[in-house]
Description:
The structure is a single chain. The chain is an alpha+beta fold. The chain contains six helices and 21 strands. Strand 2 and strand 3 form a beta hairpin. It is globular.
Amino acid sequence: xxQAPRVGDIVEVRSRxxxxxxxxxxxxxxxxxxxxxxxxxxxxxxxxxxxxxxxxDTIQNGPLRRMHAAVHLAGTRCSGAAHDGCEAGCELFWKTxxxxxxxxxTGDGGRATGGCTEARLVELTRRPTQNGDETLFRCQATEMVxxxxxxxxWDVRSYVRDVRSGNVGAWALCKSLAWSLFTWMTTHLRGxxxxxxxxxxxxxxxxxxxxxxxxxxxxxxxxxxxxLQPGELVQVKRVEEITATLDRLQKNxxxxxxxxxxxxCGRTFTVERRIRRIIDERSGRMxxxxxxxxxxxxxxxxxxxxxxxxxxxxxxxxxxxLRRVSS
Length: 327
């Protein structure tokens, strides 16, 4: 596409042959893999949900990373069908070269870089290993570092892109910048308690949310057995109730409770499904989740505390953080 699409634009995913022609021998464009699961969307007209010009670094846990010419499309998540049934349901990244603008039923041409085949795409879902007994997977999430470059939180151009693309409104952006400044001050300047007191005083007067201290005191964290099933209604417990189940690293039996989850506390949602197997983005190994790990319908990371990252990662919940609601 010659012009970067904005949030709300209707685009058409190019045909299989057009997209395959844009890929290199590793099935990538600018380091970003096109996965077999994405072929199902070819030819469809879809709404641009967000510009994907930046994303969180979930591999190195570093700063935000910059991606060029990519978007997230509404309703397009990875099914995991070509990755041994991975259930993470990751938001897919779409290069604008794989899309065409919908205008009078036509679109501009995509750029060709070499070419790839559908059979090759399936081969590329696995990584070569020295140990033949171990299967390592490859997907957009595992290759995110190769497809992006580091992005400073103080890069003003990133925030300009947020507003121009329609990702974030001006007032939400101002609040995000204020939060980034506050977290930087508490990390680099003295007087942590005074800074927190001032922040909470301002938030209280304006009716905002105070700073949450989420680290718990437990060395061994508890569990609850609710046997929740898809379609059931549950209420997310209050922040204080969840914190009481966490250790000092904000984890319950290894599952991290992030600040991004706090806006959902006290609200009621439907159980979408249980998560039992996901690919580890760092190693490419398939992780089997023996404990309870629940996905709630429509509950994803908003990015409000992480520079408005638009990735919308699915939020995972322990059953002990939820309570069943009778219909």
